[in-house]
Specification:
about 375 residues; Rossmann fold; globular; five-stranded mixed sheet; about 30% helix; alpha/beta; 2 domains; about 20% strand; 15 strands; seven-stranded mixed sheet
């Protein structure tokens, strides 16, 4: 069953009257489908210990989720008379810890789980969701294996292939591209790479890597490294243009002098859009600068409210509520592809600039990629 392609706007959801086209199922927006004293629990698996970049990333996601839930419910944080409660647990960046914490959240009444932040954790949680029949929204995990993994898992952001399809637009025709990655995956084939350099993620010998790139006569290099370090970027040969998927704002200074020639692709960057959702988010986050984590948490909030509207007690009703969902939000028009739950959305490309005496790093977008340009063929 496919829902009507109605934009899910804050005002519309604030009144909680969005209907599903062609569905005979009656809604109960006045009560949220149950007793006012019974909250609608949502479980968030986030990282509070371990990798500090993941801790910061999950913090921003939680902020976006919280702000998004307030915006989409017109600051009520309720579906009808029932309050939405977000129950949180630390996954410690471990699949095993995440699964155990998720089981505890399910026992506490959570029928929607959000989290992941790394592919291994997200994949394990997706498997659990399929087994325990709860809705799962992977947070910022890009593994293509999550697309269509089961009927309970829905993306709130792009997959690896969608990002690579956007990166491909920056590849020079007739040029010589080298892929530099700890796990090259699909990148060499999708980008038409002339060569691939694979090295352990823990390597510190970036000088040797730079020499390999030079020996391969590369004029572009796609960099997919799990840790952004200045030594890596400084080792790239002069005249070689780097391409990458932009990391969180905190990593931008690490691009160093290479940043001027860098061309990036991103699911979202501050200022890429200018709408009511962005205005709300901007004044609510630290420093008034939105990051990718904020955007994807905000998107997840819109999906959660939709699912709870049409299926507050029933996960089986939440699934058709999200399949085919078309909505506007921070990242403008988005659509959940019903066949595999891929999120069809805009992506952005751009460059880094340095402004002011202190050399503040700013990401400037110079192109936008529509869903048709990056969607994985069915």
């Amino acid at each position: 069953m496919t829902l009507s392609r109605r934009a899910v706007l804050g005002a519309a959801l604030g009144s909680l009257t969005v209907a599903a086209g062609g569905c005979a199922r009656p809604l109960s927006p006045a009560t949220g489908g149950g007793n006012a004293k019974t909250p609608l629990n949502v479980g968030l698996l986030w990282t509070r210990t371990g990798d500090q970049l993941k801790v910061a990333e999950s913090t921003r996601y939680e902020q976006g989720l919280r702000i998004g839930l307030s915006w989409v419910t017109n600051r009520a944080n309720k579906i009808g008379v029932r309050a939405i409660h977000t129950l949180k647990a630390d996954d410690k960046g471990s699949p095993e810890v995440a699964v155990a914490a998720a089981e505890d959240l399910i026992a506490k009444g959570c029928r929607i789980l959000v989290g992941g932040f790394t592919d291994p954790v997200a994949l394990r949680l997706a498997e659990l969701a399929g087994r325990r029949k709860v809705l799962f929204i992977p947070a910022m995990a890009t593994s293509d294996a999550l697309t269509g993994i089961n009927k309970y898992t829905f993306r709130d952001g792009p997959s690896e292939t969608q990002l690579l399809m956007a990166v491909r637009a920056y590849v020079k025709p007739g040029g010589r591209l080298v892929v530099l990655a700890a796990d090259p995956g699909k990148a060499p084939a999708l980008l038409g790479a002339a060569a691939t350099i694979k090295a352990p993620a823990s390597t510190t010998d970036f000088t040797a890597i730079g020499k390999k790139i030079k020996a391969l006569r590369a004029d572009q290099v796609y960099v997919d490294w799990p840790v952004v370090t200045p030594r890596l970027w400084e080792a790239l040969p002069a005249g070689v243009q780097p391409l990458t998927v932009l990391g969180a704002r905190a990593t931008w200074p690490a691009y160093g002098t290479t940043g001027g020639s860098l061309r990036f692709v991103t699911p979202y960057v501050d200022g890429a859009t200018n709408n009511s959702a962005y205005s709300t988010l901007k004044v609510s986050v630290p420093g008034r600068r939105a990051d990718t984590g904020h955007a994807e948490g905000f998107t997840a909030a819109q999906m959660i409210v939709r699912a709870l509207q049409l299926g507050p007690q029933d996960v089986a009703a939440m699934i058709p509520a999200l399949e085919g969902m078309f909505f506007n939000g921070l990242k403008t028009a988005m659509n959940v592809r019903p066949q595999d739950h891929l999120m069809l959305e805009q992506l952005w490309g751009g460059r880094l600039t340095w402004t002011g005496a202190a050399g503040v790093v700013t990401a400037v977008t110079d192109r936008q990629f529509g869903p048709a340009e990056t969607a994985i063929p069915l």
